[in-house]
Amino acid sequence: EEVTNGELTFGGTDATKYTGTLTYTPLTTTEPASYYWGINESITYGSTTILAETAGIVDTGTTLILLASNAYSKYQSATGATLDETTGLLRVTTTQYDDLEDLNFNVGSVSYALTPNGQIWPRALNTYLGGSSDYIYLVVNDLGTPSGEGLDFINGQTFLERFYAVFDTTNSRVGFATTSYTDATTN
């Protein structure tokens, strides 16, 4: 392919693809997240706790970031977003977009921040969802279950495209770092 938007490396890491420290967290023992690439994390929007530390999964096969229903409601309320019935995604106005705060995924002692731009669906792709090219859609959606059931979030592709991720089977852990690929930060 002439144009690629990612890369997969087996058997190691590529230090040219990330900056700073690659930080690992152990796989969770909480079921059912432990059946997948499950980790423990908390999520904050600015300084507001959206989801207290809990188990969920990191999943390359899920497009959006999915949160337990109660956490999704807190995020929706904090952003002022409204549900767009056509796409099923949250939608914000340009003023609300300008006021968005970072969405922080706190894994161990490290926080991985999705800037406001990282929280929105690429506008050039809006019509592929059946949406309006003029709207601003968010990439956070409802998991459909309340927190406390052992799988309270899914950090999908819209999270993973912003960070360098390592799935370490040998040591039963997942690692993250800041990506060195700058084009991933523009929607």
Broad shape: globular
CATH architecture, by name, is Beta Barrel
CATH topology: Cathepsin D, subunit A, domain 1
Helix content estimate: 10-25%
Q: Biggest sheet: strands side by side, in what order? A: 8-7-2-3-11-4-10
Mind telling me the CATH class?
Mainly Beta
The biggest beta sheet is recorded as:
7 strands, mixed
Please tell me how large the radius of gyration is.
16 Å
| Backbone structural class | mainly beta
Taken in chain order, the helices and strands follow as EEEEHEEHEEEEEHEE
Q: What's the number of domains?
A: 1
- The separation of the N and C termini measures 22 Å
CATH H-level homologous superfamily name: Acid Proteases
Count of discrete alpha- or pi-helical segments spanning 4 or more residues: 3
Secondary structure tally: strands: 13
Please summarize what this structure is.
With 187 residues, the chain is mainly β.
Task: Describe the protein in words.
It is a single chain. With 187 residues, the chain is mostly beta strands. The chain has one domain: Acid Proteases (Cathepsin D, subunit A, domain 1). It is 11% helix and 36% strand. It is built from 3 helices and 13 strands, in the order E-E-E-E-H-E-E-H-E-E-E-E-E-H-E-E. It has helices at residues 69-79, 94-99, 157-160; strands at 18-26, 38-45, 48-58, 65-67, 82-83, 90-92, 103-107, 110-114, 136-137, 140-142, 153-155, 163-168, 173-179. The strands form 3 sheets. It has a 7-stranded mixed sheet. Strands 1-13-12 form a 3-stranded antiparallel sheet, with no helix packed on it. It has a 3-stranded antiparallel sheet with strand order 5-6-9. Residues 183-187 have low confidence and may be disordered.
